[in-house]
Design a protein that fits this description.
The protein is α/β, with parallel strands linked by helices. It has 2 domains: 3-94, Alpha-Beta Plaits (2-Layer Sandwich); 117-241, Oxidized Rhodanese, domain 1 (3-Layer(aba) Sandwich). The protein is built from 8 helices and 14 strands. It has helices spanning 18-35, 56-67, 121-130, 143-146, 165-171, 173-176, 189-200, 211-219; strands spanning 3-11, 38-44, 47-54, 77-82, 90-94, 117-119, 135-139, 149-151, 155-156, 180-184, 205-208, 224-226, 228-229, 236-237. The protein starts with a strand and ends in a 28-residue tail after the last strand.
């Protein structure tokens, strides 16, 4: 039997209150259990981030219900199919941030108000085909993710945690000025903050609309070497979005079969 995996995120403005978050947490947890859906939904004042899996009919029902909520009406879902359920539990958590950014996680960027320009995967492929010498690719992911695969010629800033990205970005600002910069990550959420910050620094910056996963879906593996690390039991997917399981543990030593979604840091 096949199951549908969906990944989605959305930043919101204004931020959600603590009361709204707790109400939403209870509502979503109850609905996921009713529909037999597993995985993790993260809620924070700044929005939602999730990867969940279930039977297609259940997932489609939840997708419609989420989009009916005013704050999530513009949700976009990235889909893939698996032949087993890659999560054991159903979790809905409230966090301080969806994606910590900066030393204490709280650097002031609000992607719901302002972020970098989007480039569609098909257009990015054309840019890469043309070998534009002014084009610079920056991989915003952590070093252990990049080891599984990245775009040809992309800059790897050897980040251990994404919260270190703003410090390195400011150190390397000069080398990016005057360039056409494309930042990318797995599904796009980290690039929302990274490109917002880069744009504030005066850098001409783009992000891949939908991240690496959308690029794979739209154009395959052109100009990309290797696979894409994902934050669940699949470990990685290839350019056809098929699971490629490399390891039995994540970089911090936690075993894969003990996790229900790995939180980006």
């Amino acid at each position: 039997m096949n199951y549908l995996v969906i990944a989605f995120y959305q930043f919101v403005d204004p931020y959600m209150t603590s009361e709204r978050l707790e109400t939403l947490r209870k509502q979503l947890k109850s609905r996921l259990l009713e529909l037999g859906i597993r995985g993790t939904i993260l809620l924070a004042p700044e929005g939602v981030n999730s990867t969940i899996v279930g039977e297609e009919s259940s997932i489609r029902t939840l997708m419609s219900e989420l989009r009916a909520m005013p704050q999530f009406e513009n949700l976009h879902f990235k889909e893939s199919v698996v032949d087993h359920v890659p999560f054991k539990r159903t979790l809905v958590k409230i966090k301080q941030f969806l994606i910590p950014y900066g030393e204490n996680g709280a650097r002031d960027v609000n992607p719901a108000r302002h972020t970098g320009k989007y480039v569609k995967p098909t257009e990015l492929k054309q840019w890469l085909d043309s070998k534009d010498p002014n084009l610079v690719l920056v991989d915003t992911r952590n070093n252990y993710e990049i080891k599984k695969g990245t775009f040809e010629g992309a800059q790897d800033w050897n980040l251990r945690h994404f919260r270190n990205f703003p410090e390195v970005l400011e150190q390397r600002k000069a080398e990016l000025e005057g360039k056409k910069v494309v930042m990318f990550c797995t599904g796009g959420i980290r690039c929302e903050k990274a490109t917002a910050h880069a744009s504030d620094l005066g850098i001409d910056v783009y992000q891949i609309d939908g991240g690496i996963l959308q690029y794979f879906e739209d154009v395959g593996g052109a100009h990309y070497n290797g696979d894409c690390f994902v934050f669940d039991y699949r470990i990685a997917v290839d350019s056809s979005l098929n699971p490629v399981k490399y390891d039995t543990a994540f970089p911090d030593g936690r075993p894969v079969d003990a996790l229900d979604g790995y939180e980006v840091e």
